[in-house]
Write a structure and sequence with these properties.
Elements (H helix, E strand, L loop, with lengths): L1 H18 L1 H20 L14 H29 L4 H20 L14 H24 L3 H17 L12 H32 L5
Helix pairs in contact: 1-3, 1-7, 3-7, 4-5, 4-7, 5-6
């Protein structure tokens, strides 16, 4: 998990630097312009601490991606230990299932957001994301491993349930153009898919390579 998470985290950081960071910089210009206007009208707010541009910000991004990769790698390794027979190709499939649960399904209601975008309250977003990720992971497990049509139907219902309930609605007005937000959302999902495919494959490879020989 540590080896695979480090590789996948570094890989994702490189993709983000090329595909997503320029979009974030554009959005921050719109955000700062809106905040300057609000401050001029007496409605400014303190955004809190942020890493400085350049090396510090890059270092925190890489560190966060590597830590996330290791954490998700541990989850995958636990699944592999329960299933037993896993190799690199099967690991990629497991990784794409992780992408579906932790990124794709939540993005249907809460797409990746740029700075300055209109968003729902953080607590509401966290609860809905957690519910959606858990329901999607459980639903996929029932669909793939469940025996009998009832369990598979229950899995499909579990996957659909969070979207029937609905994600929390955003509040306020977005400061970034819609085209920029769409480009960032699609780019973020593409990077996440590549991250999970690599993470799953590498975790499967190392899991098999380090397995005791009997």
């Amino acid at each position: 998990a540590i080896l695979a998470g480090a590789v996948a985290g570094l890989f994702a950081s490189a993709l983000q630097a090329v595909r997503l960071v320029p979009l974030i910089h554009q959005a921050e210009m719109y955000e700062s312009g809106g905040q300057d206007a609000a401050a001029h009208q007496g409605h400014g707010h303190d955004s809190g601490w942020m890493p400085t541009q350049g090396l510090e910000r890059t270092a925190y991004t890489v560190l966060a991606n590597v830590i996330a990769g290791i954490g998700f790698g541990l989850l995958l390794a636990a699944c592999y230990a329960l299933r037993g027979d896993v190799d690199m190709k099967r690991g990629v499939v497991w990784g794409l299932a992780g992408f579906a649960a932790f990124h794709l399904a939540p993005a249907l209601g809460l797409p990746p957001e740029l700075p300055g975008a209109a968003v729902a309250p953080l607590h509401d977003r966290q609860i809905w994301w957690l519910m959606t990720a858990a329901a999607t992971a459980g639903g996929l497990a029932l669909v793939v491993f469940g025996r009998g049509p009832l369990l598979k139907a229950a899995g499909i219902g579990l996957i659909v349930l969070p979207h029937v309930i609905g994600a929390p609605a955003p509040e306020g007005q977005s400061l970034v153009p819609a085209e920029l937000a769409v480009s960032f959302a699609t780019g973020s999902l593409a990077v996440a898919a590549a991250f999970w495919a690599l993470l799953g494959g590498m975790t499967g490879y190392f899991f098999r390579a380090f397995a005791p020989r009997t």
